Amino acid sequence: LQEKLSKIFKTITGQGRLTEKNINEAVRQVKLSLLEADVNYKVVKDFVENVKQKALGEEVLRSFTPDQQFIKIVRDELINIMGRANAPLELRHHPSVIMLVGLQGSGKTTTAGKLALHLRKQGRSPMLVAADTYRPAAIDQLEKLGKSINIPVFCGDRKNAIQIVKGALKAAQDLRCNVLVLDTAGRLHIDDEMMKELEDIKALTNPDEILMVIDAMVGQDAVNSALEFDRRLSLTGFIVTKLDGDARGGVILSISYVTGKPVKFIGVGEKLDALEPFYPDRIAGRILGMGDVLSLIEKAEKELDKEKMEATAKKLLQAQFTLEDFREQLRELKKLGPLSSVFEMLPGAPKIDVNASEKELKKIEAIINSMTAEERKNPRILNASRKLRIAKGSGTTVQDVNKLLKSYEQMRELMQRFKHGKLKLPFGL
Ligand code: GDP
Ligand code: MG
């Protein structure tokens, strides 16, 4: 997507404003990406409309090239829906109760085990409660899980979910467990009998958390079931499972959007340690299929030191850009540290490994030092025999010299483009 968006906006780079035409095209790409990621189509419709309004209304922040600005709008809107920070469990009662609900096969039983393990790692004393009497094997499954992590599992009479939960509340006191994780019965489809049972369990236990477990692979259907579970039970949040597979996670966006409730954890594997707190910003890129770009922009925003950038940029632009300037520039880029990744985002920027070791930089300096003043000013005169002399003099190879010259040429060209206003430095410089 990143590439496509860059292409769309390339034509207007430097124009200073997002235009309706290229925004429409960009919005279309975002729409396709979201649908591809299995985001519910109604949610997509609303979402892109929102993004479009924002993009049209906004001056190009001088700080970004238009494609990056557009991505920023999309990113901000995604985070708007999914929340900026991880929503933690809120456990207030003694003992606390976490009730897991959801359709059959969504991963409730597995997630119950994962959560119990997670809670114990946090210093709590969890108990698993096998309240799924709909499928006979479900109780055995939870018992086995509990045994494997050495966490008590309460099964009661194995017949009546309400009685089991009642018994568990008592047993928790005897065993000094301070948090109960309830595994409940699901169905293949939403069904009134199931809902009634869940409502009864809720009334009996007054849970601190009612988390719906949703399989990331279910796609479009997630919205309807999330809405119905939320309507009947007033969920406190979601756990989305099976994100270790191909699913891009569009389900997360859909359910957060329609219910306004947070995703608190994600399941990323069948093993019991494969549960992670959910961080919205990390999934945004995955949903849009553009990898690290979002986090890169975020990083740049955070670490931006305007004054430093400005001083460097001025220096760069005023210079004649001889090899000596180049050497100076490498030192400056190195000083920028992580910010230099912003530089690499510029179209046409040479791949300079600014994290290159001190040794690399020394090598470059050695090469430049071995040149005559004339050669430094006018590298074009460097023929094979001069290059050989320089390589020998600096203890490097002719390849090293050529590599340096190539980087220098690319950089010089880039500088020319800045000078002539064909390209804008990021961050309003
Ligand atoms: P329940 O019917 O809702 O209790 O679902 P289960 O806990 O029995 O899980 C159904 C299947 O999904 C099992 O084979 C689990 O191993 C699998 N599963 C659950 N969570 C995950 C996950 O995060 N990743 C993967 N790959 N598989 C999972
Ligand atoms: Mg189960």
UniProtKB/TrEMBL annotation:
CDD domains the record matches: SRP_G
Protein family membership: Belongs to the GTP-binding SRP family. SRP54 subfamily.
EC id: 3.6.5.4
Occurrences of domain SRP54-type proteins GTP-binding (ranges): 262-275
Name by which UniProt lists this protein: Signal recognition particle protein
GO cellular component: signal recognition particle
Residues given in the record as GTP binding sites: 102-109, 183-187, 241-244
GO biological process: SRP-dependent cotranslational protein targeting to membrane
Coiled-coil ranges (or none): 290-374
Domain of life per record: Bacteria
Domain notes: Composed of three domains: the N-terminal N domain, which is responsible for interactions with the ribosome, the central G domain, which binds GTP, and the C-terminal M domain, which binds the RNA and the signal sequence of the RNC.
UniProt-annotated location(s): Cytoplasm
PROSITE patterns per record: SRP54
Free-text function comment from the UniProt entry: Involved in targeting and insertion of nascent membrane proteins into the cytoplasmic membrane. Binds to the hydrophobic signal sequence of the ribosome-nascent chain (RNC) as it emerges from the ribosomes. The SRP-RNC complex is then targeted to the cytoplasmic membrane where it interacts with the SRP receptor FtsY.
GO molecular function list: 7S RNA binding; GTP binding; GTPase activity
Keyword tags: Coiled coil, Cytoplasm, GTP-binding, Hydrolase, Nucleotide-binding, Ribonucleoprotein, RNA-binding, Signal recognition particle
Pfam families the record matches: SRP54 (PF00448), SRP54_N (PF02881), SRP_SPB (PF02978)
Catalytic activities: GTP + H2O = GDP + phosphate + H(+)
Source organism (scientific name): Pseudothermotoga hypogea DSM 11164 = NBRC 106472
Assembly with partners or alone: Part of the signal recognition particle protein translocation system, which is composed of SRP and FtsY.
HAMAP family noted in UniProt: SRP54
